[in-house]
Amino acid sequence: MIMQRSESDLRTLITLVEMKARDYDGHLTIMRFSTEWKAMLGTPNLDTGEGRNQVRTIKGYESLEQALLYLIIEGQGA
After folding, report:
1. Can you tell me the distance from the alpha carbon of 26 to that of 7, in angstroms, rounded to the nearest whole number?
2. How far is CA 70 from CA 14, 43, 46, 50, 63, in A?
3. How far apart are CA 78 and CA 11, in angstroms?
4. Which three-class secondary structure state does DSSP give residue 42?
5. What count of other Cβ atoms lies within 10 Å of the Cβ of residue 2?
6. Is 52 left (phi over 0), alpha (psi -120 to 50) or beta?
7. How many angstroms separate the Cα of 67 from the Cα of each of 17, 25, 47, 48?
8. How does pLDDT run across 5-40, given as a tens digit for each residue?
């Protein structure tokens, strides 16, 4: 079972991800699909097959908090 995070926890996660995003010119991409959340450092070029492949390979999560936590730990970027 996944615990619900408080609003302050989400703000902390966003602050930490924003700090990591500095290495990618401050770019952070958060995507919500019908069944999952995805987040990445940088900006995928969705006009190309390469950018669509980048999005496809990002692991999806049930919650925004999980996606951001993974991004903090793994630092996956474009």
Report:
1. 23
2. 12, 17, 22, 22, 11
3. 23
4. coil
5. 9
6. alpha
7. 10, 20, 24, 24
8. 577 788 999 999 999 988 888 889 999 999 999 999
What sign does the dihedral 9-10-13-14 (CA atoms) show? negative
pTM for this structure? 0.79
Radius of gyration, CA atoms only, the chain:
12
C-alpha 66: how far from chain center: 9
Q: CA dihedral in degrees (20, 24, 25, 29; nearest 10)?
A: -80
List helix spans (H) across the chain: 7-21, 49-57, 64-74
Taking the chain, what is the end-to-end CA distance rounded to the nearest angstrom?
Answer: 31
Q: Is the dihedral of CA 59, 27, 43, 78 positive or negative?
A: negative
Q: Which helix H or strand E contains 39, and what residues bound it?
A: strand 37-41
